[in-house]
Amino acid sequence: MDIKREDILHLAELSEFTLSDAEIDDLGEDLKGIIKYISQLDELNTDQVEPTYQVFEMDNVWREDKILPQEAEREMLLELSKEDQDHQIKVPKVL
Amino acid sequence: MKYLPTIGIECHVQLCTKTKLFSEVDNDARGKEPNSCVSPIDYALPGMLPRLNGEAIRFAILAGRAMNCKINLHSRFDRKHYFYPDSPKGYQITQFYQPIIGAGYVELPSGTKIRIEHAHLEGDAGKLTHFDTYSLVDFNRVDTPLIEIVSMPDIHSAKDAHDYCKELWRLMCHAGVTYGDLYNGNMRFDVNISLAPEGSKELGTRAEVKNLNSFRSVERATSYEIKRQSKLLDQGKKVVQETRGWSDAEGKTTGQRSKEEAKDYRYMPEPDLPPINLSKEFVETESAKLPLMPSDYRSAFSDAVKPDTLEILLDYPQLMQKLGEIASPSHLGHTSLRSSVPRGFQGRSAKLMVLDGMASTISLISNLFTSVLLAEEKSAEYLNDLPSAKDLIELAEMNEKKELSSTATKEVFLKLFDPQMKGRGTKNIAKELGLIQENDLGALEKIVDVVLAKPETQKAQNDFKAGEEKVIGFLVGQVMKESHGKANPGAVQKILRDRLSK
Amino acid sequence: MKIANKKVTAERLVKDALAKAKHFADYNIFTFLNEEGAIKKAREIDAKIAKGEKVGKLAGVPYALKDNFLSPEGETTASAHILQGFTSPVTATAVAKLEAEGAIMIGRTNLDAFAHGSSTENSYFGPTLNAFDRERVAGGSSGGSAVAVALDIVEFATGTDTGGSIRQPASFNGVYGLKPTYGCISRYGVVAMASSTDCIGFFTKTPDDMDLLMSIASGQDSKDMTTLPDYYNTELERSHLGHAQGRSPKLTVLDETSSSSISNNHKASGCRVGIIKDFDNDSVDAEIRQALKEKCELLKSKGHEIVELEMPSLKYALSAYYIIVPAEVASNLSRYDGIRYGFRSDDSAVLDDLYDHTRSEGFMPENKRRIMIGNFVLSSGFYDAYFLKAAKARTLIIKEYEKAFSKVDFILTPVAPNPAFKLGEKVNDPVAMYLEDVMSVSLNLAGVPGLTVPAGKTKTGLPLGLQLVGPRRSDKNLIEFAKELK
Q1: What is the pTM of this model?
Q2: A73 is a domain residue
Q3: Which fold has domain B441-500?
Q4: Which end of chain B has a smaller Cβ tally under 10 Å, C or N?
């Protein structure tokens, strides 16, 4: 399939990237090549084949509903952010 | 032109599990400091993995059964991607491809049935507070377990929209899976509304009003949209497919500038959580823990309780469960399944029936609940700790036997809730308050004779004998006074009459 | 690896390791040297030994930690700009288990940013050099760890393997590298690349060391719901063999009583070893194919049987892998937004810019490629054609391995099509770089274990490695059988 400039821009938007024109061209080429390669799968007949999302034989793994002390509490976590105020993380205004 | 509104509603219910859906931190952040209920998992540090809370699975089964839904034995989680500070992982863990709750229906008090398309488990988002140049982010609500209930477009009026939401709220509260605290956003509603000319086959373009958190706002927003869209259509204009917000103050909906339409959530199976494969046995065992539902009470109490009284009481699961216990003591109720199921609990496994002779008791107590308890300003706190069924039954008996006047009955009833008095037993409380009526004839006759011997009653006695009926009231009053109000007025009058007719 | 004998102190071992690390500084192996922390821990252990107190199985053993494992010692950066400045308040389960046994982390090792790569050239800190030829790549993504062991700086190093990131650098540097069965070792606290294929593993100099590390690190973890109940230490490893056509077990326990280092009391004999015909062609370097033939002869001489296998679906493994993994990568890397930790771009007056600028500046080109490919294969209209199709191909690959292991006990294949290549040779050609993984990714898609075993050198002196593959949960057998290849 053909990847156009606007496709690249759409994928960049989904990925939250701002790309320079150079990047748009380079990534465009790279993505074309990669998509061409992975499209080889079309050859493979997968009719009546169930998909596999995990290679883990177990199911119904869940924990009991019990409050436990955590490895890191509020202060240790908020300390990691650039800016906090009133025990909350400060971010630029949302448009 | 006349239009038929077609309405579908998505409802988010916050589950009252002790811990969050994917971490072992406190799930009840009400009144707690920002970010005080946050684990490294909720904060989405690198390398953190979700730890599924099994209780949420059980609650989902109960919620599903409360809506007569099929429980899917095979379900799993998926990731829904979007960038916003309220979503630390950059995706929400939800159930897009294989939800745990399948099709079912909710029956409104009016008898109308609204079909449920499906319902699924997912994690809630955090909270942003906006200021003019910045916003603050609080993750307390991140991954609070939610059940999203998706209705079929079976609703056609603002009133039914209101009733559906309220009935959902009652079902979830009776099932004990949520605190049902609307003020704190425990239940939130998104309403999809479209209009089509009456009789036309295809549906119109729909607008969605998001994040309504009261039944009243659901009703108002819906009627507003119906008016707004009819007007547009009458003017030959088009309804824009969009998300709209509701302002309670202005009483109107407004279009929200949002990428919604452009949004591509890139759903993907959640690789960090194994699939859920439930056995029939497990689903049956868990379903059996479902307490009595409004429909059970409606059918059981149709004779004993006036419909309007019943509809009021149905907003209070704990009161209904108490009435259930009174009706047939085997029906031990419990409001929240956060506490393990009490011994003797039967839930819906046994059909609720009003035992012989209990109808009048149910009738009296349900009236006291509405007219006295709910009118009391302390009712909120009283509701958390109800008196035993035994005490209430005893109260009804004393009232029956005239040992308590109707006023005294109300007074003792309230005292049963009073932390100071609680648990002392109805009789003792009534005694302490000296409210038990004197019905012992011998004793009454003595008092009557004392009164009749008093000079100040002679005139009245003569007047009565002369045929002046009404003075009997004065004499009864005198006796009551002598008995310090404990005498049963009816009995007193009887004795007076045959004394004076001699 | 133990220092129970008091001949050498932990402090000595750690100081030597740190000295060697500095001596080889120009190989760019470490992103952080844990000098103070390591020496402090070493002294504590020496004090314990002096007092005759009990010490762990790895007491005083210096090791290197791939920089995508979270621990409070040094910044955890995954060699990515966007994680600069992030010091973790939490500790990965694997790290906690190693340290509980007294192992001492002397430094964090370089990798391709977020483990995206097969050469360790995609690192924010620049490439790590190959231990045997400084003009060649270390392999990747765990290049730093492989070289740290190959240059004998440490006794062992941790790695992560999503599509070959342990096995390929191990073969490029002539050391043992194990990618265990999926779910064998907890992923908690390890920077996620692709959750359904990520595996935690090790680089060592001997199979016995690998066995010891596995016995310590494996097991179920309540913090990772995709971990298997401990089978490595509890199950009779024999039970995994012989379901090759129901023939009798191959590993015979000589001494039931002996405990920890079970390795010493097993002997393998008469195993069936499969080789994959589909890989025996010019796409694979001649010297590697020669090495494979020689090892087959060696095995025959030891009474093992060589069986030719046809596994036609494997040629689709790479395509499926580069659909499934980028999808999970795009998802797992959504959390890096500059809001809660790590790098945040300053010039952002509005939120949208904060996201855009932080992610555009914070990710390496290869990160961006994979994120965009992932978003492509998941986006509406393409999901069925790509992601779902790949998930079905994955089923076929799993079935093909199950079929193979009904015929053989192990499979022996090349790890990569070639020995270590020149720096810069492939870094600008993503598809050529991806082809490095063509023989390693199918194991990750199937969740089966693979062990890189050194297999001599090229004429020019570059290490060669082969990959020993077994069915799920056969990790211990792989390690045992590797001795047969010596």
Answers
A1: 0.91
A2: no
A3: Arc Repressor Mutant, subunit A (1.10.10)
A4: C
